[in-house]
Specification:
Elements (H helix, E strand, L loop, with lengths): L2 H27 L15 E2 L2 E5 L4 H7 L3 E8 L7 E8 L11 H7 L3 E11 L4 E11 L2 E11 L2 E3 L2 H13 L6 E9 L5 H22 L9
Antiparallel strand pairs: 1-2, 2-3, 3-4, 4-9, 5-6, 6-7, 7-8, 7-9
Length: 221
């Protein structure tokens, strides 16, 4: 067997082995969260925004495998800008119920990621840099903000989320997590104005989000 052939054999084998050890570690060290999320506590009215709950296709919930979710459309009667809020809470990030990344879901829905960078946002317990995507589909433009929340605080990177999950499992901490996503049409005045709109909205949402999710009110250092 040539060197290249041996590499072609061992690399996939090591990936399979690492995945098996990863899943086994999670199962053997799993600790149940002492309390869950109460997403119903997030008010539909965040003046001046008024919210309406929306449901996905049932098949999406089956794929997502979250324990509880909230999808709400907040409309500003004054016309300053509307906001979509999606929150998914996972009581345990067991195999098959781990958080799906927008990096994969957005292109799967026909959206192109046109630009990405971190932006500071009030998330409850302090300010943190969250992910901000500018996405497009045809002539439509939206700005999407998202982050993850665990017992360690705010996490923005999918690989860091997996490491955090492993660390919490090995330290016998609950491995629950939440995914938070905000999306809004890009304002004609540009991304800076859209960021400012989102900051005003989060000033209203953040305290309620902190109360609804069972995580410490702190930002990951």
């Amino acid at each position: 067997m040539s060197g290249r052939s041996r590499a072609g054999f061992w690399v996939p084998a090591l990936v399979v082995l690492a995945s098996g050890l990863y899943a086994r570690a999670l199962r053997s060290h799993e600790v149940a969260a002492p309390n869950g999320a109460d997403l119903g506590a997030i008010p539909a009215s965040l003046a001046p925004w008024e919210g309406t709950d929306v449901r996905f296709d049932p098949r999406i919930y089956q794929v997502l495998s979250a324990d509880t979710t909230l999808m709400r459309y907040y409309r500003d009667p004054g016309g300053a800008g509307d906001m979509w809020v999606f929150v998914a809470y996972f009581h345990s990030q067991r195999t098959g119920a781990q958080i799906h990344s927008p990096k994969n879901c957005l292109p799967g829905g026909g959206w192109n990621i046109l630009a990405r960078r971190p932006v500071p946002l009030e998330v409850g317990g302090g300010r943190a840099a969250v992910n901000r995507f500018l996405i497009g589909r045809g002539d439509e433009r939206q700005v999407v903000y998202y982050w993850f929340l665990t017992r360690s605080g705010v996490i923005t990177d999918e690989y860091a989320l997996k490491l955090d999950l492993m660390r919490n499992a090995l330290l016998r901490r609950p491995t629950d997590a939440a995914f938070i996503r905000l999306s809004t049409p890009l304002l004609r005045s540009g991304t800076e104005a859209t960021d400012a709109l989102t900051a005003r909205f989060m000033a209203r949402l953040a305290p309620a989000l902190t109360q609804a999710l069972p995580f410490p009110s702190r930002v990951r250092p």
